[in-house]
Write a structure and sequence with these properties.
about 500 residues, alpha/beta, TIM Barrel, binds cobalamin, binds iron/sulfur cluster
Length: about 500
């Protein structure tokens, strides 16, 4: 069967800092290729809609699958589905990915016949039976599949994440993937899932709070096969198990792989296992993203982060000593007043780290989707990108955005000043010599993208597709929120974060 896989375009407020390869889509492609299908892929983060039209016209796919990790991309994906049906009448159109998995039935209804099915959960296991059922029938019996007739059996977790390998070769314009100065940059996955249960996050509900590790040899083989000099490790929390991080490090040392890495982790994990991070710093780990979320204990409790402000500050010190450049995320509560923005600005200027701000957003799949008592002020998918306020703000919305952008601008100026002092010019020159312009463009685009007037105007756009109304529910033991329901042997009971 001819299968075309599509990733929608980048979200407006993330495109300036990063644009990364769609690893999930590539893994789904890998599974379909291994089963003998003809597969092509197009990523609209780095290709134009006209390229998609050309692909539809020339390849004439039997099936088109669209990746929907991000809620804000749902209207675009429905548009792609309509386009595919119009250009290739009779082709089977399906959606898959993180966000759409939580609201599959609702999106199918909204697509009004342009989408034939949603494959919920991990795509690698379901794609081959799904494609077989497209020709042979029996769609409703496939685990994870939802059609207009309703859901079939629940999705199944992969036993091992070692296979299939992502079909990286299918992605054109790979040189356009970057994160900050790591330009160009590929992605890799060492572990999947997260054993914590933060109230604002859907990573743990998606995987039913399970946690799986790639075998060190498979991870190192995959890494060695990556052509790019920089690699983003997509794991939700890197090196929860230090022996696993060490085993991969040993394998890549043996293979003499030398690259620069960017990873995400938690403060408590970094403090508990400093040696493994030090070892990776020697191997090329350059950047680390720490989801601090709040600078006070009250905020950390509210988000059920299960770390203290002290641990956060110690983790920053530890990372500095390792020579790592750290980016911190803080969640902006729409209830903030000007004083709270001022305190955050002060904090951001006082620390050498890069500070990112995201706006607290109840998503389907998160606990706060069910428990947040403030009513949504909008259900426009496009505003659910954690850069817009979707619950009432204490400040008038215009002032809220002014404060948000002002804070981001202060942080950005500090960051640019810091980078200039620590060698941005050298990095720029090196990248430009190799024809890599992503980082240079990012530096100049800030003011165009972060603009309070533009953010406010986004709320006034006509809305065609809306999120469902959240069902207020008592989430009790929280298992009711799991998308994948199998409970693997190494999942942790609620309330007990893993220790090493
Ligand atoms: C790595 C990551 C990123 C990376 C890379 C993103 C990329 N290009 O793919 C970066 C840092 C760029 C990023 C950015 C953002 N991210 Co992000 N990210 C993740 C993270 C941690 C892992 C994703 C990943 O690569 N997993 C590994 C791969 C193998 O899995 P996967 O992509 O989920 O794919 C599997 C399934 O989803 C499915 N699948 C995927 N595509 C398809 C397609 C088809 C056809 C089928 C059948 C199946 C299928 O099968 C795949 C294999 O099992 C997730 C959390 C999580 N654990 O899922 C958050 C997450 C997806 N991100 C999130 C957010 C909010 C963002 C940002 C909006 C944050 C911001 N404001 O800056 C931006 C937006 C980026 C954009 N598109 O413009 C939210 C999504 C919330 C939502 N409901 O919309 C998540 C869930 C984290 C969270 N806190 O809850 N992100
Ligand atoms: S630790 Fe990170 S990935 Fe895990 S639940 Fe919390 S925010 Fe989500």
């Amino acid at each position: 069967m001819r299968l075309l896989l599509v990733h929608p375009s980048a979200l407006m407020y993330s495109e300036i800092f990063l644009r990364l390869e769609p690893l999930g889509l590539e893994r789904v492609a890998g599974a379909a290729l291994a089963a003998g299908h003809q597969v092509r892929a197009i990523d609209l983060q780095v290709s134009r809609p006209a390229d998609l039209d050309r692909e539809l016209a020339s390849f004439r796919p039997d099936a088109v699958g669209v990746s929907l990790n991000y809620l804000a991309n749902i209207p675009e994906a429905i548009g792609i589905a309509h386009r595919a049906k119009a250009m290739v009448p009779g082709c089977f159109v399906f959606l898959g990915g993180h966000s759409v998995s939580f609201i599959a039935g609702h999106v199918l209804e909204q697509a009004n016949g342009a989408v034939d099915a949603v494959l919920r959960g991990e795509g690698e296991a379901g794609i081959v039976p799904l494609l077989a059922a497209v020709t042979d029938g029996g769609l409703r019996g496939i685990p994870g599949v939802v059609t207009a007739d309703g859901p079939g059996p629940g999705p199944q977790l992969l036993e091992s994440i070692d296979e299939p390998r992502p079909a990286r070769h299918l992605m054109r314009n790979r040189r356009r993937y970057f994160i900050g100065e790591l330009d160009p940059c590929a992605s890799i996955e060492f572990t999947r899932g997260c054993p914590w249960d933060c109230s604002f996050c859907s990573a743990w509900t998606f995987y039913g709070r399970s946690y799986r590790k790639a075998s060190p040899a498979a991870a190192a083989d995959e890494l060695a096969a990556i052509a790019e000099p920089n690699v983003f490790i997509v794991d939700d929390v890197a090196f929860i198990r230090p022996e696993h991080g060490d085993a991969i490090a040993a394998e890549i040392e043996r293979r003499r792989v030398r690259k620069r890495y960017y990873l995400e982790t938690r403060s408590d994990v970094l403090l508990r296992n400093p040696e493994v991070f030090q070892r990776w710093a020697r191997l090329g780990l350059a950047y680390m993203f720490l989801g601090m979320e709040a600078i006070d204990a009250e905020g950390l409790d509210l988000y059920r982060k299960r770390v203290s402000p002290d641990q956060n500050f110690h983790a920053l010190e530890a990372a500095r000593k390792m020579g790592l450049m750290v980016a911190i995320n803080l969640i902006v509560d729409p209830a903030w007043d000007t004083e709270q923005f001022r305190v955050v600005r002060e904090f951001a200027l006082a620390v050498p780290e890069i500070v990112h701000l995201t706006v607290l957003t109840p998503y389907p799949g998160t606990e706060i989707w069910h428990t947040e008592s403030r009513r949504l002020t909008t259900r426009d998918y496009r505003l659910f990108d954690i850069q817009h306020a979707v619950v009432p703000t204490t400040l008038p919305l215009e002032i809220f955005y002014r404060e948000l952008v002002r804070t981001q601008a202060v942080i950005n100026r500090k960051h640019l000043g810091l980078r200039a002092a620590t060698g941005a010019a050298r990095i720029l020159a090196r990248n430009l010599t190799h024809g890599q312009t992503n980082f240079a463009r990012m530096i100049w685009r800030f003011n165009r993208v972060y603009n309070a007037g533009r953010q406010l105007a986004d709320h006034a756009r006509p809305v065609r597709y809306e999120l469902p109304v959240p069902a207020q529910a008592d989430v009790g033991g929280r298992q009711a929120l799991y998308l994948h329901n199998r409970r693997p042997a190494h999942a942790y009971p609620a309330g007990t974060p893993p220790s090493s």
